[in-house]
Design goal:
Elements (H helix, E strand, L loop, with lengths): L6 H4 L31 H7 L10 H4 L2 H14 L3 E4 L4 E3 L5 E3 L1 E5 L4 H19 L13 E5 L2
Antiparallel strand pairs: 1-4, 2-3, 4-5
Helix pairs in contact: 2-4, 4-5
Length: 149
């Protein structure tokens, strides 16, 4: 006797365009933590990264490396533990000029110390997105990823 299933037995009892077909849920978005990111410390990189036109970081937003440096300094002044340039967002523009458009900010552990840093990150994120995010979105995680288009 043949134990192989017939072609009809292998087909699902419904087609993909059937009203009975249920899409699988989308994959759950995984929140990355500080250990998942790599890259140079932001102030050091901004001060030393070779870029001939002085626009080494998110030039559409900061209009120059000096303003980007001031932004990172404000994160540290607010209490950020560390700020890095995400290495996956560093590109060689040719001729040795480097450019980046994303930061990762390590937040302090204590809630009262996190608040001023989170406030800056939230304002910047909302500015970039063009909408206001809920405060609850900012209450978890040990770091914040900031990216400018």
């Amino acid at each position: 006797m043949d134990n192989s299933a017939s072609e009809n037995e292998l087909r699902p009892p419904y087609s993909f365009d059937s009203p009975n077909y249920i899409d699988p849920p989308p994959p759950k978005e995984v929140e990355l933590s500080w250990k998942d990111y790599k890259g140079p410390e932001a102030l050091e990189w901004l001060r030393t990264a070779p870029n001939g036109d002085e626009n080494a970081f998110a030039s559409n937003r900061f209009q120059g490396t000096t303003n980007a440096t001031r932004f990172v300094e404000s994160l540290y002044a607010a209490g950020a533990v560390c700020v890095i340039i995400n290495e996956e967002n560093i590109v060689d523009e040719g001729g040795g000029d480097l450019y980046a458009d994303a930061l990762v900010v390590l937040l302090p552990e204590a809630p009262e110390a996190r608040s001023p840093v989170v406030k800056i990150c939230k304002q910047e994120s909302d500015r970039e997105a063009g909408e206001v995010s809920s405060d609850a979105e900012w209450e978890t995680g040990d770091c914040v990823f900031l990216w400018w288009d």
